[in-house]
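yo

u said u wanted the structure for the complex thing, so here. seqs first:
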Amino acid sequence: MAERYDHRELEPRWQRRWEEEGIYRAEVDWSKPKHYALTMLPYPSGDLHIGHWYAMTPSDARARWMRMKGYNVLFPMGFDAFGLPAEQAAVQRNIHPAKWTWANIERMRRQLRSMGAMFDWRREAITCDPSFYRWTQWLFEKFYEAGIAYRGEALVNWSPTLQTVLANEQVIDGKDERTGQPVVQKLMEQWFFEITRYAEELLDFEGLDWPEPVKAMQRNWIGRSEGAEVVFRTEGGDELPVFTTRPDTLWGATFMVLAPEHPLVDGVTTPDRRAEVDAYREQTARRSELERMEEGEKTGVFTGGYAINPVNGERIPIWIADYVLLSYGSGAIMAVPAHDQRDFEFARKYGLPIVPVIQPDDGEPLDGATMTEAYVGPGVMVNSGPLDGTRCTEAKGRENPSIAAAIDWLVEHGVGREAVGYRLRDWLISRQRYWGCPIPMRYRRDGTIEPVPEAELPVVLPEDVEFTGRNPLAEHPEFVQTVDAEGRPARRETDTMDTFVDSSWYQYRYLSPDYDEGPFDPEEAAYWLPVDTYTGGAEHATLHLLYTRFFTKAMRDLGIFDETAEVMRRHGRDPDSLFDEPMLQLRNQGQVLGEERPGDVVHVVGRWRGETLVAESVRVDEHADPADADGVIVGEVMRRVENVLQVRVDDRLVTVEVPEDAVVEIPGIPGDNDVTQIRHHLEVQRMSKSRGNVVNPDELVEAYGADTVRTYLMFAYDWEKGGPWDSRGILGTRRFLDDVHRIGTERYVPKDVSEEATARLRRRVHQAIRKVDADMEAFKWNTAVATLMSLRNDLLEALRSGSVSADAWDEAVKTLLLLLAPMAPHLTEELWRGLGFDESIHLQPWPEFDPEVAREELVTLVVQVNGKVRDRLEVPADADAEAVEAAALSSERVRRWLETGEVRRIVARPPNLVNIVVG
RNA sequence: GCCGGGAUGGCGGAACGGAAGACGCGGCGGACUCAAAAUCCGCUGGGCGCAAGCCCGUGUGGGUUCGAAUCCCACUCCCGGUACCA
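structre next:
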């Protein structure tokens, strides 16, 4: 009898042994092809979530597979350790953020090790470690010297709750994406990265194997639009440039609108309008983005000033309105109410003229007085002087003849130029927070700025700080007070960087986390870069993934990879275009959701008070006898809020109030019961502590083993999609590994060996190699595991019958273990060594697929009549069209159907299918 | 509104334009057991039929094709992104 599969003993043992033997150490070796596999680094929140396992263990399996395929694989891990939760812990629980973070890292490292992943821990990088953030600061200074990092004034998103500013990418629906608290717009001086410098290049995904949705989201976020810049003038003579995508409609502009914060507003406002304009501007400043959006109707006020339309010299009024944003284009628009819905609504509300300049192809000429909405379709230009008669299509930019004609006219007359606008704004990186990378700048007494000299880096976060809710750095005199390069008193910058700055370059620090002559060692970088495969959540599409692309491009342009390129050339590797993009291949995993759970069935006796049943007694009862008396209901508890239950009775929900003195009986829970112990129905939703539907990976590892958890997560879902957790489903995976354990330890005794059964098993083995290999390549772990389960079924069958040769059995077992090794590294290692091999299974080459052995000799021929399957026949795999046709026509079952009419056509697809068309 | 993605048994999910439902969960029946659990064996999309077998079936409606879950058109619902972007 074989020994039992004891994962509790076996898994830690192999983890220790691998560590001791250092089998996962990744060393530069120019004689081997490299593969840099990377999975998004976690925030050290304190506990590893099942989502981390779902993201990381399949990525680990793929990295292992690449290694067995002969690649030298780097698969590092680290922590994105700066960020707000640490400060919140400090305020709430009086623990220093550093202490809290480092304790969490310690704990999570242990949990990560329990995965049995091939992380090379010598390459661990932790963003809050001074040895890391020294180089974040160094990069900031390089960006500063190049003008990519700058201090500027802009309308920024200020979160009163967090007492800090946020990047555009962190604000969703006018609310902070983390806390859901509203954000207000404030004009503030802050640090920015000039990501817009790369807007055009960031739109180019050439050569990147990235998911289409991620590319689309980035394109939308960047929001390129083609048009023209047209220079209007105020009556006072000030230039008032506007950006428009429809320069062809310039002749229909009947007014202008400036953003309330626009610098020219003061100049154009006439004394009689001053009070109203100021009031409107103040109101705009006070309202949050959210309030502005909720207000459906457009508002605005007339400034009293006028501008001259450069195309026809017409005098048009200048308004201000908050539907025009200061941060897009020039913060001013020309309004063409006849052909822009926003302008139309505004014009109608305030009685401004509407002049159509496009005549639709069919129907009556447009009349500004009677139109009910803006016309945005195709037609012919009218009322437009030189453009009259030009065709207007629905195409954008120069593709549209009328727009092309308008741009040419503007250029010719010197009042405008072709222009491209982007929705993307510069990346606001200042945060008025403590737990982030300090911005290494200081302000001299004269107000000018200087970077902290490189030799003084890093600017270290002081530890003796107090947390009051405001930025503690600003209130720390020893930190703030410093001296400039000349020794004169200076003030230190107290803002820290957005944590997305840290994760924008961490993939480079992994290469050499201890290197102290630069952010990374060119000798390592030349071999490992770029990242070949990157995996992580799609929620980072417009945040991290856009930022890190920008970072790499900026670093490239600043020459930070020059030395690396030199080393590459020395080794005969062409560095051309290798530093344009950080990650060549990207894949997103989905999310593991909480499990659906039925609620308790309760038997409630009480009194009706309106629609509510006030309970006298509540009994949890599995045998749901139907209720027959008044004031008695039986049903499943769907929801519970405090002491109020929603019980489903037939198809409706009954509200049950359970007063303090009601009797609650739950047979399954001994002792006195109360209403909070009643289980309510749980729907499939994201896991969260408050919903009580989180699954704890540590407990799963304890109960089933890391290999089972890994394999189950790979088997249960389409990885890119995710889905609900199934606590019974994991048992099937454990049974699979139990069977593998049995197959790997049982002595096989051939009994009635048949050549046919032997050949069949060998065929299945080689088909499995092909299938698993293709699936690993394509991130289709679920079908890879399914293939191995089938192979398990074949082996169990062989074990029962003893019908295969000993050699075929050995080959099959060995192959099963090798193919399963990336998914279940501990068990396969144990069984492999048990078979007598001295070297780790994880150092073995991936099995070779033999097409000769995998080839089927007999295949099933499906015979259809008019597309419906009428018979299945066995034919040789090499049967030709004639042979399969003959076989099909001679089938007894098929013949009966042929009698219903004449054979009109026979479609043969040998060797699998024949379709006979009868009519 | 706009841009993506999706909808297949009771459930998770498989299916180069060619056998729908691989693999697993659950369910049902049987073996073992005093019994239960575990384990093992068999069945398991729906309907009709004693059976051979037949009919229906991949969100809905149409189309292309010898043949459609797969391609095309229109629509419904769900999920994600984005939203005065001039």
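The longest strand of chain A covers residues 149-159. The two ends of chain A are 64 Å apart (CA to CA).
cya
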